[in-house]
Amino acid sequence: MKTISIGKDFSDTPMGRYPTDGAFNGETFREDKLVPMLRENDVVEVIIDDAEGYGSSFLEEAFGGLVRKGYFTLEALKQKLKISLTDPDYEFYKQLIWTYIEEAKGRAA
To answer: Is 0.85 topped by the overall pTM?
Structure first.
């Protein structure tokens, strides 16, 4: 299993959907970090509670985009993607990530 910490390995202030929204946006995280790791590893653990928080646009683009853009199916991500946290306040973000992934299933490329 490969692990990536959004706050430590990407940015502790991730925000926005596209590169035009700033350097630490959801599309950049997905394309530069998440997709390559998921393709190269059987399981990828993403630690989410080391960032200051997340906007819905970042989470939907980074995680929902995995399915919406046709990289992975919902079923594949259930096997390959592990969202981890130690701070219970971040459980909301974990649930939101899986909601965006599930919703993207109907809009897959």
So the answer is: yes
DSSP-H helix ranges across the chain: 6-9, 26-29, 35-40, 56-59, 65-68, 74-80, 91-104
Which H or E run contains 67?
helix 65-68
Judge whether 14 and 50 are in contact, CB under 8 Å.
no
Cα 86 from Cα 39, distance rounded (Å)? 26
Give the tens place of pLDDT for each residue, 17-39. Answer: 999 999 999 999 999 999 999 99
First to last CA, the chain: 28
| Paired tokens of 69 | 């853009």
Question: For residues 52 and 9, is the Cβ–Cβ distance under 8 A?
Answer: no
